[in-house]
Protein backbone atom coordinates (compact mmCIF):
# COMPACT_ATOMS: atom_id res chain seq x y z
CA UNK A 1 0.00 0.00 0.00
CA UNK A 2 0.87 3.65 -0.17
CA UNK A 3 2.91 5.35 2.55
CA UNK A 4 1.70 8.81 1.59
CA UNK A 5 0.39 11.17 -1.05
CA UNK A 6 1.04 14.53 -2.67
CA UNK A 7 -2.00 16.75 -2.13
CA UNK A 8 -3.17 20.30 -1.62
CA UNK A 9 -2.36 21.60 1.88
CA UNK A 10 -6.08 22.33 2.19
CA UNK A 11 -6.79 18.59 1.87
CA UNK A 12 -4.06 17.35 4.23
CA UNK A 13 -6.37 17.20 7.24
CA UNK A 14 -9.00 15.23 5.33
CA UNK A 15 -6.34 12.80 4.12
CA UNK A 16 -5.13 12.27 7.69
CA UNK A 17 -8.69 11.72 8.91
CA UNK A 18 -9.30 9.02 6.33
CA UNK A 19 -5.88 7.37 6.08
CA UNK A 20 -4.49 7.77 9.60
CA UNK A 21 -2.08 10.10 11.34
CA UNK A 22 0.99 8.16 10.11
CA UNK A 23 0.01 8.53 6.43
CA UNK A 24 2.45 11.06 4.94
CA UNK A 25 1.23 14.21 3.22
CA UNK A 26 3.50 16.23 0.91
CA UNK A 27 1.92 19.55 0.04
CA UNK A 28 2.93 22.02 -2.69
CA UNK A 29 1.04 25.28 -3.10
CA UNK A 30 2.53 26.88 0.02
CA UNK A 31 2.92 30.66 -0.01
CA UNK A 32 3.91 33.33 2.47
CA UNK A 33 0.97 35.30 3.88
CA UNK A 34 2.09 38.49 2.13
CA UNK A 35 3.19 36.80 -1.11
CA UNK A 36 1.70 36.48 -4.58
CA UNK A 37 -0.31 33.32 -5.26
CA UNK A 38 0.29 33.44 -9.03
CA UNK A 39 -1.82 30.91 -10.92
CA UNK A 40 -2.32 28.81 -7.80
CA UNK A 41 -5.76 28.63 -6.20
CA UNK A 42 -5.51 25.99 -3.47
CA UNK A 43 -2.74 27.59 -1.44
CA UNK A 44 -2.02 28.40 2.18
CA UNK A 45 0.83 29.58 4.39
CA UNK A 46 3.56 27.36 5.90
CA UNK A 47 2.05 27.83 9.36
CA UNK A 48 -1.49 26.97 8.25
CA UNK A 49 -0.30 23.99 6.21
CA UNK A 50 1.34 22.57 9.32
CA UNK A 51 -1.79 23.18 11.42
CA UNK A 52 -3.99 21.42 8.86
CA UNK A 53 -1.79 18.34 8.74
CA UNK A 54 1.05 18.68 6.20
CA UNK A 55 4.10 16.56 7.00
CA UNK A 56 6.29 18.06 4.29
CA UNK A 57 5.68 21.39 2.55
CA UNK A 58 6.92 22.33 -0.92
CA UNK A 59 7.79 26.00 -1.31
CA UNK A 60 8.83 26.69 -4.90
CA UNK A 61 8.29 30.05 -6.58
CA UNK A 62 8.15 32.09 -3.34
CA UNK A 63 11.82 31.12 -2.96
CA UNK A 64 13.11 30.64 -6.53
CA UNK A 65 11.48 33.82 -7.86
CA UNK A 66 12.19 35.98 -4.81
CA UNK A 67 14.47 39.02 -5.11
CA UNK A 68 16.60 37.38 -2.42
CA UNK A 69 16.07 33.58 -2.57
CA UNK A 70 18.37 32.95 0.41
CA UNK A 71 16.39 35.36 2.60
CA UNK A 72 13.12 33.76 1.44
CA UNK A 73 14.47 30.31 2.28
CA UNK A 74 15.55 31.47 5.72
CA UNK A 75 12.12 33.00 6.30
CA UNK A 76 10.51 29.67 5.45
CA UNK A 77 12.83 27.86 7.87
CA UNK A 78 12.06 30.42 10.59
CA UNK A 79 8.32 29.92 10.17
CA UNK A 80 8.79 26.15 10.34
CA UNK A 81 10.83 26.46 13.53
CA UNK A 82 8.09 28.63 15.05
CA UNK A 83 5.55 25.92 14.20
CA UNK A 84 7.70 23.30 15.91
CA UNK A 85 8.02 25.57 18.96
CA UNK A 86 4.25 26.05 19.13
CA UNK A 87 3.71 22.29 19.22
CA UNK A 88 6.51 21.78 21.75
CA UNK A 89 5.12 24.39 24.14
CA UNK A 90 1.59 23.02 23.73
CA UNK A 91 2.84 19.53 24.65
CA UNK A 92 4.75 20.96 27.59
CA UNK A 93 1.76 22.85 28.97
CA UNK A 94 -0.48 19.81 28.68
CA UNK A 95 2.11 17.47 30.22
CA UNK A 96 2.42 19.49 33.45
CA UNK A 97 -1.29 20.36 33.53
CA UNK A 98 -0.60 24.06 33.15
CA UNK A 99 -3.50 23.81 30.70
CA UNK A 100 -6.61 21.83 31.64
CA UNK A 101 -9.19 20.88 29.03
CA UNK A 102 -12.59 19.82 30.41
CA UNK A 103 -15.26 20.25 27.72
CA UNK A 104 -17.72 18.02 29.63
CA UNK A 105 -17.17 19.71 33.01
CA UNK A 106 -16.39 23.36 32.26
CA UNK A 107 -14.64 25.84 34.50
CA UNK A 108 -16.26 29.12 35.50
CA UNK A 109 -14.13 32.18 34.80
CA UNK A 110 -14.24 35.24 37.07
CA UNK A 111 -16.45 36.88 34.44
CA UNK A 112 -19.00 34.09 34.89
CA UNK A 113 -18.26 32.57 31.47
CA UNK A 114 -18.34 28.78 31.33
CA UNK A 115 -15.05 27.67 29.80
CA UNK A 116 -13.73 24.27 28.66
CA UNK A 117 -10.15 25.44 29.25
CA UNK A 118 -8.16 26.74 32.20
CA UNK A 119 -4.57 27.93 31.95
CA UNK A 120 -2.09 28.40 34.81
CA UNK A 121 1.32 29.06 33.30
CA UNK A 122 2.84 29.70 36.73
CA UNK A 123 3.25 25.91 36.87
CA UNK A 124 5.96 26.16 34.21
CA UNK A 125 8.25 27.67 36.84
CA UNK A 126 8.12 24.41 38.84
CA UNK A 127 9.06 22.20 35.88
CA UNK A 128 12.72 22.83 34.94
CA UNK A 129 12.68 21.31 31.44
CA UNK A 130 9.43 23.08 30.52
CA UNK A 131 10.67 26.30 32.08
CA UNK A 132 13.80 26.13 29.92
CA UNK A 133 11.76 25.66 26.75
CA UNK A 134 9.53 28.59 27.69
CA UNK A 135 12.30 31.02 28.59
CA UNK A 136 14.46 30.05 25.60
CA UNK A 137 11.38 30.53 23.42
CA UNK A 138 10.60 33.96 24.86
CA UNK A 139 14.23 34.98 24.34
CA UNK A 140 14.01 33.91 20.69
CA UNK A 141 10.82 35.94 20.22
CA UNK A 142 12.55 39.04 21.57
CA UNK A 143 15.61 38.52 19.36
CA UNK A 144 13.62 37.72 16.22
CA UNK A 145 10.63 40.06 16.45
CA UNK A 146 11.96 42.87 18.66
CA UNK A 147 15.68 43.16 17.81
CA UNK A 148 15.79 46.79 18.98
CA UNK A 149 14.57 45.93 22.50
CA UNK A 150 16.50 47.53 25.33
CA UNK A 151 14.53 46.33 28.36
CA UNK A 152 11.97 43.70 29.37
CA UNK A 153 9.04 44.51 31.63
CA UNK A 154 6.99 41.76 33.26
CA UNK A 155 3.31 41.93 34.05
CA UNK A 156 2.38 41.57 37.70
CA UNK A 157 2.57 38.97 38.95
CA UNK A 158 2.58 36.18 36.37
CA UNK A 159 5.06 37.76 34.01
CA UNK A 160 7.69 38.83 36.54
CA UNK A 161 9.65 35.58 36.84
CA UNK A 162 9.54 34.95 33.10
CA UNK A 163 10.78 38.48 32.40
CA UNK A 164 13.63 38.04 34.89
CA UNK A 165 14.80 34.70 33.47
CA UNK A 166 14.45 35.82 29.86
CA UNK A 167 16.33 39.05 30.62
CA UNK A 168 19.12 36.98 32.16
CA UNK A 169 19.38 34.88 29.00
CA UNK A 170 19.53 38.03 26.86
CA UNK A 171 21.71 39.99 29.31
CA UNK A 172 19.16 42.80 29.39
CA UNK A 173 17.72 44.97 32.16
CA UNK A 174 14.20 44.16 33.39
CA UNK A 175 11.51 45.45 35.64
CA UNK A 176 7.81 44.98 36.17
CA UNK A 177 4.59 46.92 36.33
CA UNK A 178 2.31 46.65 39.36
CA UNK A 179 -1.44 46.37 38.96
CA UNK A 180 -1.66 49.64 40.97
CA UNK A 181 0.51 52.14 42.80
CA UNK A 182 2.12 51.08 46.07
CA UNK A 183 0.53 52.69 49.13
CA UNK A 184 3.91 53.19 50.81
CA UNK A 185 7.47 54.34 50.05
CA UNK A 186 7.79 56.04 46.66
CA UNK A 187 4.40 54.67 45.58
CA UNK A 188 5.86 53.31 42.36
CA UNK A 189 3.76 51.43 39.83
CA UNK A 190 6.77 50.68 37.65
CA UNK A 191 9.52 48.78 39.45
CA UNK A 192 12.97 49.05 37.90
CA UNK A 193 14.80 52.03 36.44
CA UNK A 194 13.39 53.05 33.08
CA UNK A 195 14.28 56.16 31.08
CA UNK A 196 12.03 58.00 28.67
CA UNK A 197 12.42 56.60 25.17
CA UNK A 198 13.56 53.17 26.36
CA UNK A 199 12.49 50.48 23.89
CA UNK A 200 10.55 47.92 25.93
CA UNK A 201 9.06 44.46 25.37
CA UNK A 202 6.35 43.35 27.79
CA UNK A 203 6.53 39.74 28.99
CA UNK A 204 3.14 38.15 29.70
CA UNK A 205 2.14 34.56 30.49
CA UNK A 206 -1.37 34.47 28.99
CA UNK A 207 -3.34 36.56 26.51
CA UNK A 208 -7.10 36.17 26.78
CA UNK A 209 -9.12 39.35 26.22
CA UNK A 210 -5.99 41.50 26.43
CA UNK A 211 -7.29 43.95 29.02
CA UNK A 212 -4.66 43.51 31.72
CA UNK A 213 -1.62 43.55 29.43
CA UNK A 214 -2.91 46.65 27.62
CA UNK A 215 -3.10 48.40 31.02
CA UNK A 216 0.60 47.60 31.49
CA UNK A 217 1.39 48.95 28.03
CA UNK A 218 -0.52 52.16 28.81
CA UNK A 219 1.39 52.67 32.07
CA UNK A 220 4.72 52.24 30.29
CA UNK A 221 3.74 54.60 27.49
CA UNK A 222 2.61 57.22 30.00
CA UNK A 223 6.06 56.94 31.60
CA UNK A 224 7.65 57.71 28.23
CA UNK A 225 8.73 54.21 27.24
CA UNK A 226 8.47 53.03 23.65
CA UNK A 227 6.64 49.71 23.83
CA UNK A 228 7.73 47.57 20.89
CA UNK A 229 5.25 44.82 21.71
CA UNK A 230 4.45 41.80 23.83
CA UNK A 231 6.07 38.36 24.08
CA UNK A 232 3.72 35.86 25.70
CA UNK A 233 3.66 32.16 26.48
CA UNK A 234 0.14 31.35 25.32
CA UNK A 235 -2.87 33.00 23.71
CA UNK A 236 -6.46 31.83 23.47
CA UNK A 237 -6.69 33.72 20.20
CA UNK A 238 -10.02 35.26 21.19
CA UNK A 239 -11.33 37.85 18.74
CA UNK A 240 -11.95 40.32 21.57
CA UNK A 241 -8.29 40.12 22.55
CA UNK A 242 -7.12 40.48 18.94
CA UNK A 243 -9.34 43.53 18.44
CA UNK A 244 -8.22 45.15 21.71
CA UNK A 245 -4.54 44.73 20.91
CA UNK A 246 -5.09 46.14 17.43
CA UNK A 247 -6.97 49.14 18.83
CA UNK A 248 -4.14 49.76 21.29
CA UNK A 249 -1.63 49.48 18.43
CA UNK A 250 0.41 46.82 20.20
CA UNK A 251 1.86 43.66 18.69
CA UNK A 252 1.82 40.30 20.44
CA UNK A 253 3.84 37.20 19.59
CA UNK A 254 2.97 34.04 21.53
CA UNK A 255 4.92 30.81 21.90
CA UNK A 256 1.75 28.78 21.34
CA UNK A 257 -1.97 29.21 20.86
CA UNK A 258 -5.32 27.51 21.32
CA UNK A 259 -5.54 26.17 17.75
CA UNK A 260 -2.24 24.32 18.08
CA UNK A 261 -3.03 23.16 21.60
CA UNK A 262 -6.37 21.62 20.58
CA UNK A 263 -4.69 19.74 17.71
CA UNK A 264 -1.89 18.48 19.97
CA UNK A 265 -4.37 17.52 22.70
CA UNK A 266 -6.35 15.45 20.19
CA UNK A 267 -3.23 13.81 18.78
CA UNK A 268 -1.94 12.98 22.27
CA UNK A 269 -5.27 11.58 23.48
CA UNK A 270 -6.12 14.30 26.01
CA UNK A 271 -9.48 14.95 24.35
CA UNK A 272 -11.98 13.10 22.16
CA UNK A 273 -12.85 13.91 18.56
CA UNK A 274 -16.16 15.52 19.53
CA UNK A 275 -14.38 17.72 22.07
CA UNK A 276 -12.59 19.49 19.23
CA UNK A 277 -15.90 20.91 17.96
CA UNK A 278 -16.79 22.16 21.43
CA UNK A 279 -13.44 23.82 21.98
CA UNK A 280 -13.37 25.47 18.56
CA UNK A 281 -16.93 26.76 19.06
CA UNK A 282 -15.98 28.21 22.44
CA UNK A 283 -12.93 30.01 21.06
CA UNK A 284 -15.02 31.38 18.18
CA UNK A 285 -17.46 33.05 20.61
CA UNK A 286 -16.91 32.76 24.36
CA UNK A 287 -20.20 34.52 25.09
CA UNK A 288 -22.25 31.81 23.36
CA UNK A 289 -22.80 28.85 25.74
CA UNK A 290 -24.24 26.65 22.98
CA UNK A 291 -20.82 25.01 22.57
CA UNK A 292 -21.69 22.91 25.64
CA UNK A 293 -24.54 21.17 23.75
CA UNK A 294 -22.55 20.17 20.67
What does this structure look like?
- This protein has helices spanning 12-19, 46-52, 61-64, 69-95, 128-145, 160-170, 211-222, 239-247, 258-267, 273-284, and strands at residues 4-6, 24-27, 56-57, 99-101, 107-108, 114-115, 117-119, 151-155, 174-177, 190-191, 199-207, 226-235, 252-257.
- It is of the alpha/beta class and 294 residues long.
- The strands form four sheets. The chain has a six-stranded mixed beta sheet with strand order 10-9-8-11-12-13, sandwiched between helices.
- Helix 6 links the parallel strand 8 (151-155) and strand 9 (174-177).
- Helix 2 runs parallel beside helix 4 (69-95), helix 4 (69-95) packs antiparallel against helix 5 (128-145) and helix 4 packs across helix 9.
- The longest helix has 27 residues, at 69-95.
- The chain is globular.
Layout: helices, strands, pairs:
Elements: E1 4-6, H1 12-19, E2 24-27, H2 46-52, E3 56-57, H3 61-64, H4 69-95, E4 99-101, E5 107-108, E6 114-115, E7 117-119, H5 128-145, E8 151-155, H6 160-170, E9 174-177, E10 190-191, E11 199-207, H7 211-222, E12 226-235, H8 239-247, E13 252-257, H9 258-267, H10 273-284
Parallel strand pairs: 1-2, 2-3, 8-9, 8-11, 11-12, 12-13
Antiparallel strand pairs: 4-7, 5-6, 9-10
